[in-house]
Amino acid sequence: MKPVYVFGHRHPDNDSICSAVAYAYFKNVTDAENDYIPARLGPAPRETVWAFERWGATLPDEISHIHPRVGDVMSSDVIKIQNDRSMLEAGRIMRDNDLRALPVVDADEHVLGLLSERSLAMRYLEETQIAGFDEIPVTLEQLAQVVDGEILVGDSSRIVDGRVHIAAAEPETAVEVIEPGDVLILGNRKRTQPMALEAGASVLIITLGIKPDESVLELARQKDAAVILTNISSYVAARRSSLAQAVSNIMDTELTLTTPEMLLSDAQDALALSAQRELVVVDDDHTCMGVLTRTDVARGGRRRVVLVDHNEVSQSAEGIENASVVEIIDHHRVGDIQSAGPILFLNLPVGSTATIIATRFFDTGIEMPREIAGILLSALLTDTVLLKSPTTTPVDHEIAEKLCAFLDIDMMQYGMELFKSKSAGATFSAQAAVNADLKEYRVGDHVIAIGQYETVDLNEILDKKSEVIAEMNNALAEHGYDVVVLMGTDIIREGSEMFAVGDIKIAEKAFDASFESGSVWMDGVLSRKKQVAARFMDAS
After folding, report:
1. pLDDT digits 0-9 by tens, 209-243
2. Does residue 352 sit in the same domain as residue 406?
3. Which of 533, 381, 510 is CA-nearest to residue 454?
């Protein structure tokens, strides 16, 4: 299954995170062909952390961008070979699977090197004569494997480190070249077999499948020698013997490694500078995860995403322009997100994205786990300010009541606990109050940022007014906004203390109020979208 990332907007609020988790669950139930992964684009607000703990849900991982990564395009079903396997086995694997390279790993799948088609061919071409094992010993088992042989006498773990000969001459001549420890390849040469053992041969490879006499086998035991029987010819056995060496002897150990999390653009640069045509992909433990080839890079990878609670580029993840948007679930104005083809774009005039997602559960009859219902209710109540916001619709009321009935809880009691969690056990931070939920709006030629800090005790923000205004000015300068507005929303009094910095004339025109003192109380103003952003648009 291919991954599809589900996330809300930058500076995520409760609705953004809860909706991402709930909708990812919904899609995983209804779409078996893809793996929907919830994510968030920033730290989770306190009330979100509280709600997830309250209902036993798992917070999604935070991601910083949506640029394609190595893990999106790599070949993950990669074939590997252990370091003690023979060159012949490696060559067969590469031939049968049309591979140009094999990652070499140990018994724990840790990457040790890379065996390339080129390195295998070069080693084979270097063997212009029958090779020996004096420089690179092999085990008897490895030797038997490459000649497709059966060990008749000898310990499979025995080390073979002598030269290799073919008995093509008369017996007396053939054994003249044998030194203790050598390997002799021969057919049904009954006189040569015992003479070779007497001369010190450590291994006899008997070809053409003709089993030697028992007396030869007994002599081999006495001389602590080994006998291998194979059905292939002496010529083939001689050629194959040079391929008995372990792949660890010829693998490339100077590798350029990468990880699934590396940006594809960075991996492309690394691949261009690498001597290999492939990059081995490893995890933190150096375990092989896959291979990245030049073909993989050329094919590229657009990460597939589902957007919830937003549909504007400025609100979305870095790199969204290069992603493939497959769905949008939102309750805001239509923005500037583009897609390559037709998609499901569900945008409804309700108080929260959570309302839309809960409706899909109810309408389709998909069973809703208790933790999903709990976080959806939490998102609905925070986004509608306990159903008091002017953005609240009859649908929001209906869905909230259904969720409370399903959870068997009192809506207002739970809602107050939820809002109190925003500041419970924490010291007020002007920086967090300003930046945690700051959204950009383009109004004519102006860029306006509007934040909202909801509380049950407005004094916590009024007591830090100078710090709040200073932090707003920092945001103004850092991002080049024309105006920064912060709503200090008191859910008990059902209104907001409005702070404004920058070109305050724009704010004064929008609200028909003076901001000379830095802030002004506005009774009944609870909705950023409908009562604040809308006023700026009307005044432009």
Report:
1. 999 999 999 999 999 999 999 999 988 888 888 77
2. yes
3. 381
